[in-house]
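Subject: Interface between my chains keeps coming out wrong

I've been trying for a while to get a sensible model of this assembly. When I model each chain on its own everything looks fine, but I need the whole thing in one frame so I can look at the contacts. Pasting all components below, labels as-is. Any help appreciated, I'm running out of ideas.
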Amino acid sequence: MSDTPPDHTDFIHSEEFLHGLMKRQLKLSITCAAAFLIVLIGLPLANYMAPEFMAQRVGGFTLTWLVLGVLFFPFVWIIARLFITRSMALEEAEVHLAAEGNRNRKS
Amino acid sequence: MPATGSFDYYILAFSAITVIVTIWMGFRSAKTSKSASDFFVAGRSVSVGWNASAISGEYLSAASFMGIAGMVMLSGYDALWYPVCYACGYLFLLLFIAGPLRRFGAYTIPDFAEGRYDSPVFRKIAVCFVLFIGFFYTMPQMKGAGTTLAYIFPGLPYWVGVAVVGAVITLNVALGGMKGITLVQAVQYWIKMFAISVPVFVLMAVYGGYGSNLSVNKSAADAARPAAIEQSAAPSTMDAAAPVRSALPDKAPKDESWIAPFGPLTTKAVKSAAEALPEANRAAYLAEYQKPYSLLYTFSLIVALVCGTAGLPHILVRFYTNPDGVAAKKTTMWVMILIGVFYVFPPVFGVLGRNFLPELYSATGSKGPDKVVLELPTLIRQKYGVLGSILSGITCAGAFAAFMSTFSGLLVSMTGALAHDVYGRMLRPQSTAAERMKMFKWCAVLIGGVSVILGALVEPLEINFMVGQAFAIAAASYFPLLFMSVWWRGMTMKGAATGMLTGGLCALFAAAMVNVSTLAQDKGVMGKLFSGFNPMNTFWKEHPLLRILCEQPAIWSVPLSIGLMIIVSKATRRTIPADIRMKMLVLHAPEKLGLKQEYIQEHQAGAGH
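Reply #2:
Try treating it as a single job with all components included. I did that and got this:
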């Protein structure tokens, strides 16, 4: 931290920066959550609407048991992995944006 | 099953080793953790690998280790939602809450509540909820402890097991603090992973795989196809390759409802309502209400488990033990992998237990399906002698690791709330560090004692079911608080407090109503103690929908809580904290920009330090 008192008129402290920041973060989170929720909510609905299809046997499992008891976990890992890489990239981009924005304001 | 009155030395030896190693590590680390911040958040310097193992170790409780297997055995497919949502709730935590909270950098949820709204009053409310949810969550851990000890020492009363385990862990926490706990938790994750996976592989090698054991259970669709298959409960020899199963007792659910969705777990309320009707109307009633209500039950359960994970106090505090935000994210990823892999195994025990240990269906309390994980490996004894005892010893050790680690974690966060918040901030703000350390120990003893008493009461309730309810309460209180505070700057303290209190207390009350009426049905001591609540059961029979909504309150209590937060916040718009933009920046801007330090400086300047 520098010794100079924080300057509240710079770009980082502007409404514009905060708004954009939150919007981009929320968009990423909501996209990932949507992918997850479609499956999470869709599975009970599939069980409800198409019970026979979901009850067919796959290697001894019923299809719905296989999806919920085994395949669901790797699916969630993929979403988590995507989110983490994207959000770290997003943070990098925000740091750049903030530096650039500050420079533009001063000049 | 070990003969009554005698016990198996292998099982005893493995369990004893787990307990002794746990205590030894606690005492050892007690020497190295001296300062108050060591006790509270482990000095904030735990590596990703250690921290991920520790979070997983703390998270995989008796419910995960014993409860899921018992519930899958008892209820079949529907119970699978528990392991899946326990693991996937973490995703919500990662997506919406972990990053911002970590950047804000408060010690605990009460710290966050106070920092976000500049309100010491709100801190007190949040502290109360740490204790509420914590106690709800310790009850099933205590049942796990009582069940395991009653299994190892046949004839030992359930409550003695609860008291012994409670005392041991309380002592350990009082002497070690969280620094010790991190190491202990990490080691215990690996004990649990080993203890659940190795016996599963051995059992599958002997009794056939996961899939082939499931295929023995015929679904309605299977029965329709080849007409020859009889639905009798007799030992079947339908297929030479398929494993032979034992006969199911009358109390066991039938195959077709067990393996299919919308089975015994979610249709209980409607079924008991149908029983109260005249015989002629029953089929029509069931056809009309059974499936829609059970879909509702399923959705409500999903909401509770997914949102509830994000609100568990003892899990959130761990995000602060990471050195920075990137490490916190990496930790979450590893936690999801570690617990996801683990959660594949317990349902296998449930499936095998249904086929090979059906006599457990006839027992209740600590002798029922909740102990299938412990009991199943002993079946191998008939074929391979001592290997069965060793495997059973390993699963017992895992069970010990499970309830010891979760209970320790809960005890630390509850004691932290009591010592750090109630004593250190409210009662005696001027107390010295040494006094607070001493108080930490006394608080641990107090909370441990209360947990033991509560745990002794709940023998008739299913482990996993109780954990689900703790999640429902967390989902209706902390989750809306954290989610809305992080993402909506229009929130005011009054809005947050109203929503959290109303949602959380409604869920708590609803869950408690169902629990006391279940306890009233017990045939033992608890039935007499709670017999005053018996009329509730008649009421439930007449109103199955209400029973479902009380048993799984999340589907209405979470929206209620969020709705109230929005309405009240809008009404009290004038009280939005003045520096809200700065707070939001600290929550959301990358840590590299250094806004956190700036915020602290300004706050201290403002407070006149």
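Reply #3:
Confirming on my end. Chain B has two domains: 9-215+286-577, 578-609.
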